[in-house]
Amino acid sequence: MKLSSVIKVSGVGLLSALVLAGCGSNSSQSGSKKQTANWMVAANINTMDPSKMTDLISSQNLNGTNEGLLRMAKNNTVVPGVAKNYTVSKDGKTWTFNLRHSKWSDGKPVTAKDFVYSWQRTVNPKTASQYSYIFGNLKNANKIIAGKMAPAKLGVKADGNYKLVVSLIKPQSYFKYMVSQSYYFPEEISMVKKYGSAYGTDAKKIGFNGPFVLKGWNGTNDTWKLVKNPKYWDAKKIKLNTLNMQAVKDPATALNGYQSGNLDFTTLSGTQVKQYKNDKNYHVYKQASIYYLEMNEKKFPMFKNKNLRKAFSLAIDKNQLANKVLADGSQAPKGFVADDMSSHNGKDFADQSYVKGAVEYNLAEAKKYWAKGLKETGKKSVNLTLLSDDTDVAKRTTEFVQSELTKLPGVKITNQNVPYKTRLSRSASGQFDLVITAWNADYPDPSNFLDILTSKNSYNNGKWGNAKYDALVKKSEGTDAANENARWNDMVQAEKILMNDQGIVPLYQPAISTLMKPKIHGVQFFPTAPQWDWSKITVSK
After folding, report:
1. By residue range, what is the domain housing residue 204?
2. How much is the pTM?
3. What is the largest CA-CA distance in the chain?
4. Which value, to the nearest 10 degrees, does the dihedral of the CA atoms of residues 157, 128, 497, 407 take?
5. Which has the least CB within 10 A, 297, 440, 497, 519?
6. For the chain, what is the domain count?
7. Would 267 be classed as within a structural domain?
8. What whole-number distance in Å separates Cα of residue 67 and Cα of residue 83?
């Protein structure tokens, strides 16, 4: 996502890629009466509405309380969720999911109609979902999103209560990953109709069909609980009773909570990593995510000038940012698509699409491009505001980027660090000059990144556009969709166009540096944003 998936984030998404998998479930652990863990996240929940969420924190909580047709698992596999099995037609365009008899937390049955209703609601222009584009390969989806066809015409139908039939425009091998993400979750029809626009705005205004139910979230608070859901179809395998969640923005406060025993898990800042990197409870996990700088071309037409965009990129030392400023395991990026996420014929996508000049540091060259760009646009100086979150990591990042960019003649940067929810809102509505944001892969395919920077994508907040880029992305998902080699080449060329044109400035690929109490068993992190295998987690005394 930006889940989370799927989903744009700033700061560290602490449960972003958490999979609770198979180690240490012995009898003394599973027999503990107090199966409770205390967990830290970097920000509070923005929304629990699957049709409206865009951020990782919200998505990861929804993944604990709700469930889609399938769930992602270890090694980029999928396992049954609400669907006990599925079939795909020979032409790859029709997917049929056979649903188990599962229930919502209020005891009502989860039916195929709940999926149909949810998906139709997401593509309905009235919902204004930023994730509506992700349904673009469903029959009639794009016409519905454009307001040219009724949502009821979407290529999904309920064949009785427990069979869901999906019609695609073209084959899509990774569709199995997509239906495991929160934007494809079902929505309890009666709940949505009861609360309307308030649906998903607090813990009492949404139905739950997953391993846990959400308790104690009023829409704005920084603490809440995930409590075992006795109505979940596989509840007998869930050993954990309660996960106490706490949003903590300040690393020192979080570490103090861990040391005092109030937290069983915390992430570490770069300065803290130096102190704890040899601790037996220290773990670092690379993420399939990229933090990047967007320049608002609609608000500042000067940024339509490639030389100015190129100057900004060359002026920022990404290695220093990752290794010295953050110092938490993060690394300088190779491009927009994260490395070690997807490969073809044994070659990593980030290596094949690598454009050195788009991510390297060269201040002398930056000044030359800047001078040329100013001359071409008739500008002599620029005064800009740099928007980001108010977390410690975000503040240190903006301070560094500010110091780097102001080395360019005539550049003045004012930092604006705001709460996570505010940054999301301002980014989406174009209320920024420059913004530092991020994308975390929902599924292990380059398209997960490349799609969001096409000209008309709702996540393309900077409004960069390139016709050749759009055409290649479209081709990879259209005429070349069934040709693996051709599709891969399309995406590689698209990434190179993006980087050569400097549509965005990749800043760093993050890692999660953590401390976790040894009483928590069975936790593994994976680069993309899969859901949790809650049946494996245990807490010992």
Report:
1. 36-246+516-539
2. 0.75
3. 73
4. -150
5. 519
6. 2
7. no
8. 10
